[in-house]
């Protein structure tokens, strides 16, 4: 990252355009790397990318092998690649039921979670109300709750509310786990939006709620994207609550469904791999829809200090 | 949460002006309060019903000898009343210094600490190095970023499956090691290698979050600071040490705290990687889950007591962490 210092202009030579042009031949500007540095950077990044990519790629590769022991002799898969596992999973298992459950639960959690964490984030970002500090502390502490302490009491509350084995029950449970972090996240993002915008909105006659929905929310889109993303992935990948609270096998989420697969089909690993790949597709698709906003949204509040 | 205080008065940074007196502030804010409460009400209700109340109830359970044999339950049409009784702090005493307390609690405790420290250190250092690399002007860095975030984009339970295929006896990793004439450990059976594998998989899963957060932090550092440092003749290392690291302090302290909390409570990876087959590689969270849900009879009281202990450890740690940050004149960003 060293910057080249231009050679000193010697006084005995007239400064002609040609001379200046010859200085410009030194093209390396600030922030540009020497060849060696960028080669090393590329090498490291390529290795890291391979490590990041390999387990997923390997899973995809194994899912194409027709036999359940193919993962022990991966070389043999090349000769007999087939999509039979996928058709089997889609046609013979409850995969589509699980897809429906997962989508309902995950999208419901994302929608509700993002809305209520956005309002909460806005309230704690803009307003000073009695109990503010305690509330923030509760939000932080809530993230520390281990599943084990909440599981039994939650189960009893949900069953007395008749919410066991329902979509709504699981959505609410997930909201309680994602909202604290998302509210923190949104607060950080709202903090970066100038307060003058709120004031201008109020002066122009908008209600507080109007200011929030019409002015602030559109500006906070990257932050909302990150909150949605975090909620989506957390809800999608959660295992412990889903396996305890969803009882009928048509209402399993993917995370639970994949577990039952192990015993039901006698550890047919090729089918498991195919299911896993199918499961990964919607999550990854959603991920790459929002990834553009990730870097800006994730630490917006964090970088302010 | 010191960070929000000056912002919430409605002043932008830089021109704070004198703080109005407490009475005036209260009066001024009063008109807005109903609105603030209305906005946080949904969260308060959800958290109150599904987190605070269960916590209180869970704490009560730890003072009893509840398990799946004496709790209220329904078998067919018969409803059986709960018969567990109040036993005070016996559960805690038993966990902390009862017979075989070392095997049941302290060994898992030590392993949990090692696990958290190792994972967070690895997450942070690898994440920071990758973020630094990605923050350069480099051809194809968007592509690199997209690929490097993949472990986060794919749900954990899917990738852990992939890892199980790879780590299995006769899987690709051992085959590769064999071709290289290296020892082939039993990743999923031998305690040491189980732990090693767990840390490895968790590192793989957790780096993208750190990387993206730190990348966001790096991009927010003012470029003119680097220019000034260069003018003063700072070497690359000095620029890193005296510009980059201080610029990242707020982000770092936040993501490290979050990382510690999340790793400490990391349930999915160890649970999915080993199931119930690895009693020695269980961290406290998965061990508590095993006590409460993975064995018969289910021991609800002890499981909840572990949960409360975990929570206590984290709260004490966080308080010290924040005090330490405040002493160093830093604030927690989130």
> DSSP helix count of chain A?
13
Largest sheet of chain B: 2 strands, antiparallel
Q: Any idea how many domains of chain B?
A: 2
Uncertain runs of chain B with pLDDT below 50, 5 residues or more? 1-17
- The total number of structural domains of chain A is 2
Overall pLDDT confidence of chain A: 77
Largest β-sheet summary of chain A = none
Overall shape of chain A: it is globular
Main location (chain A): membrane
Transmembrane segments (chain A): 34-61, 98-123, 135-155, 167-186, 224-247, 267-290
Domain ABC transmembrane type-1 (chain A): 99-290
Organism (chain A): Streptomyces curacoi
SSE layout and pairing:
The complex is a heterodimer of chains A (305) and B (334).
Chain A: H1 17-24, H2 35-62, H3 84-92, H4 95-126, H5 132-142, H6 147-160, H7 167-191, H8 195-203, H9 208-219, H10 221-237, H11 240-245, H12 254-264, H13 269-298
Chain B: H1 5-8, H2 22-62, E1 73-75, E2 78-80, H3 90-97, H4 101-134, H5 141-148, H6 150-153, H7 156-167, H8 172-179, H9 191-219, H10 223-231, H11 236-247, H12 249-264, H13 268-274, H14 284-294, H15 300-327
Antiparallel strand pairs in B: 1-2
Helix pairs in contact in B: 2-15, 3-4, 4-9, 4-12, 7-13, 9-12, 9-13, 12-15, 14-15
Protein described:
The complex is a heterodimer of chains A (305) and B (334). Chain A is mostly helical and 305 residues long. Chain A has 2 domains: 31-87, no CATH class; 90-298, MetI-like (MetI-like fold, Orthogonal Bundle). Chain A contains 13 helices and no strands. Chain B has 334 residues and is an all-alpha fold. The longest helix of chain B has 41 residues, at 22-62. Chain B is globular, with a radius of gyration of 25 Å. Chains A and B meet through helix 2, helix 4, helix 5, helix 6 and helix 7 of A and helix 1, helix 2, helix 4, helix 5 and helix 6 of B.
List the keywords.
heterodimer, A: mainly alpha, MetI-like fold, 2 domains, disordered N terminus, disordered C terminus, B: 334 residues, mainly alpha
């Amino acid at each position: 990252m060293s910057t080249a210092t231009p050679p000193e202009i010697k006084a005995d030579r007239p400064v002609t355009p040609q001379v200046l042009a010859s200085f410009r031949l030194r093209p390396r500007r600030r922030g540009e790397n020497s060849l060696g540095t960028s080669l090393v950077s590329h090498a490291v990044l390529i290795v890291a990318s391979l490590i990041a990519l390999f387990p997923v790629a390997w899973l995809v590769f194994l899912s194409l092998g027709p036999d359940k022991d193919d993962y022990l002799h991966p070389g043999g898969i090349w000769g007999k690649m087939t999509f039979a596992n996928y058709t089997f999973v889609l046609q013979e298992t409850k995969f589509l039921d699980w897809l429906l459950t997962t989508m309902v639960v995950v999208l419901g959690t994302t929608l509700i979670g993002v809305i209520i964490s956005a309002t909460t984030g806005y309230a704690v970002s803009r307003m000073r109300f009695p109990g503010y500090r305690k509330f923030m502390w509760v939000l932080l502490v809530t993230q520390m709750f281990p599943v084990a302490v909440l599981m039994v009491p939650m189960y009893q509350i949900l069953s007395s509310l008749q919410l066991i084995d329902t979509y709504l029950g699981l959505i609410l449970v997930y909201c309680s786990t994602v909202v604290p972090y998302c509210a923190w996240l949104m607060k950080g993002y709202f903090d970066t939006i100038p307060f003058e915008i709120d004031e201008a909105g109020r002066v122009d006659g908008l209600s507080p709620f109007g200011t929030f929905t019409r002015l602030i929310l559109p500006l906070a889109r990257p932050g909302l994207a990150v909150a949605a993303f975090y909620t989506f992935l957390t809800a999608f990948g959660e295992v412990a609550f889903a396996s305890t609270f969803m009882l009928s096998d048509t209402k399993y989420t993917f995370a639970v469904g994949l577990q039952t697969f192990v015993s039901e089909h006698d550890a047919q690993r090729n089918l498991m791999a195919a299911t896993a790949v199918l499961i990964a597709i919607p999550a990854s698709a959603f991920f790459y829809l929002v990834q553009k906003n990730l870097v800006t949204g994730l630490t917006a509040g964090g970088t302010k200090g | 949460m010191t960070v929000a205080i000056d912002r919430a008065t409605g002043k932008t940074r830089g021109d704070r002006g004198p703080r109005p007196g407490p009475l005036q502030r209260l009066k001024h804010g009063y008109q807005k309060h109903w609105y603030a409460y209305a906005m946080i009400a949904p969260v308060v209700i959800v958290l109150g019903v599904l987190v605070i109340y269960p916590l209180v109830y869970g704490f009560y359970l730890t003072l009893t000898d509840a398990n799946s044999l004496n709790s209220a339950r329904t078998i067919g049409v018969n409803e059986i009343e709960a018969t567990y009784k109040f036993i005070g702090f016996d559960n805690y005493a038993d966990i902390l210094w009862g017979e075989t307390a070392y095997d049941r609690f302290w060994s898992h405790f030590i392993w949990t600490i090692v696990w958290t420290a190792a994972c967070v250190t690895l997450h942070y250092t690898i994440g920071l190095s990758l973020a630094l690399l990605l923050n350069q002007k480099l051809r194809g860095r968007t592509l690199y970023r997209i690929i490097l975030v993949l472990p986060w984009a794919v749900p954990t339970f899917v990738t852990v499956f992939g890892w199980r295929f790879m780590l299995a006896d006769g899987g690709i990793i051992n085959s590769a090691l064999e071709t290289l004439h290296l020892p082939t450990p039993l990743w999923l059976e031998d305690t040491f290698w189980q732990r090693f594998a767990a840390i490895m998989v968790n590192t793989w899963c957790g780096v993208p979050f750190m990387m993206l957060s730190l990348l966001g932090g790096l991009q927010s550092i003012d470029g003119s600071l680097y220019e000034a440092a260069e003018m003063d003749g700072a070497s690359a290392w000095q620029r890193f040490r005296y510009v980059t690291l201080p610029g990242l302090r707020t982000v770092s302290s936040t993501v490290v705290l979050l990382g510690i909390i999340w790793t400490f409570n990391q349930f999915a990876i160890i649970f999915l990687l080993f199931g119930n087959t690895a009693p020695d590689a269980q961290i406290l969270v998965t061990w508590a889950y095993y006590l409460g849900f993975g064995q018969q009879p289910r021991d609800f009281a002890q499981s909840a007591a572990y949960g409360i202990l975990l929570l206590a450890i984290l709260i004490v740690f966080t308080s010290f962490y924040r005090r330490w940050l405040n002493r160093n004149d830093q604030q927690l960003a989130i």
